[in-house]
Amino acid sequence: MTRGFLSDVLAKWKRFRWQGLVKVWAVFMAIALVLLVESLGVHYGATRFDITYLDRAKAIPAANAIAGQKATNLLVVDSSQEGVSDAESMLDRVFLDMKVPTVTVDLAQDGEIPALKQYQTMVIAMPNLDSLGEHVLQIMQWVKKGGGVMFAMTPEKTGYLDVIGPQIGIESSTYEYVATEGITPSEDFMLGGGQTYTFSDPFKSSLSVALNDRAQVEAVSSNGRTPLVWRNAVESGTAVMCNIGIYGKVFRGFYASAFSLLGSATAYPVINSAAFYLDDFPSPVPSGNGKYIKRDYNMSISEFYSQVWWPDLVRLAERYGIRFTGVMIENYGDDTKDDPVRQTDNTQFEYYGGLLLRQNGEIGYHGYNHQPLVLPNTHYGKEYAYVQWPNRKAIVASLQELIAFQKDVLPAATSSVYVPPSNILSQEARKIIGEDVPQIRAIASTYMPSDSSLPYIQEFGVAADGVVEAPRIVSGGMVGDTYMRLAAVSELNMHYVSTHFMHPDDLLDEDRGAKEGWETYRKGLEDYLDWLEQSAPSIRMQTGTECAAAVQRFSGLTVSMETTDTSWDLKLGNLTDQGWLMFRASNGTPGNVRGGSLTKLTGNLYLLKATSATVHIERKTGGAA
Is the pTM of this model over 0.70? Predict the structure, then answer.
């Protein structure tokens, strides 16, 4: 009976003259159902974190972690010489983050150098070596017996340089300095090597030298004519020379890499994280048209976001394994009173926030509005038209409102990271966050210094109040921005980290790429992602919370190493569940590992994942002398 009924229905369907329209109607209904599901923001849950925060009490600032450890490195400076203070400041941070216990001697005040036999390495930061006097000869004798010395500053041609020149790889030198417009590290020396990185403000910073055949050049100037980093075996020891002559924050990774050439092997903690932020996302979508969006796509701003911008980001996320962290703005008003008014239109927040969480991304905090958290004693002058907050109560109320609003519209979101609007955060407001807003576990402002005094400039680490400092390094499409690419390669080698941010409204602002258009902007971003994937294929793609949790582990981790003819044995302090370290084997080749695992990155540089407080690495013969 059923079979007969179905046959009768099919026969009538074949005779039905409007069956084509019914099929079209069915397709439209299916599309409408999909759009309805998306608009309702379903099919997403809480972000699945691969790594979570340590308790605040277990998160240790780097300075506390290394305090009291026996110094293995001697830094010798002469503060009376020009440029030494800049180099010393940079090196102090490099050694702190590498967890190299260091004692500093200033010849301008102390006059004498302590006995060298108690140190494994020594760094000399002064251009005129004559200040060392006969200590130069004592230092080279110590190097011959197995010590490692790095000359961190471009040297001046003096009598003492000429005396030790052959031992540190210099065949001849002149009194001339040459302009260094960029640096090309060798492919085996650094991550991202084999490519040229351009300097923003080049000047005559490098000494014109010719090297002997024994010198192993690790980096040269962009024109290939001037050696910038080289190492030279001195009997049982090693001498490394840095001839870059620039000592800003953007160069730390080059000096850290040069220091890692000393000794048979070097290990130092790193973060191992790549995080990508979307500022002002989700937020109220601007109405109307954008000049260049209309020009290129003939769409409104909201149509462009939903039909072009977000789908392109999803494709990039799938291709490169990215998990975006969007930071929410509740409104774009300038009300800074202590009784914030709730946003009533939740549609865009639910839609875009749901899409972000569905991608296993993360929602963070950007602000109740886009007014930076500063009190009346901060003056914007002509830089910004922002409004100050009247008092502590108003700042706290604004953050509590944002937190409550986010939980209301996206109950599955788990948030912890705060990004200051325009990267501006006063010291008073920073203290307020640490004391009064426990939901904020990390702050992601900016890493590189600014010409303005307003941005909150950070270092990677844990602050005294337990808040994690996890700054962003690069931004936008980076089209033609050589400074940011230089910063990116430096930090990849300093901390094994990449943090990037962009805004949905970049395409509305000519200063951020609007005139060039989204296609150019997106291709610039893809170029950076291709470079990052090629330079650091093993780096972990993480959300803001995961990156901050990785910074916690990095901040407290310390390392010491004992070397024998057959092994390198590492002892790690403050190891929790896992730690990550750069490991360079300059003399010998790593074999079997106990207590962790090694991944080769380039040349003799490895990434060490430590799962035990003691790590034993078999040392095989071979490798550079």
Answer: yes
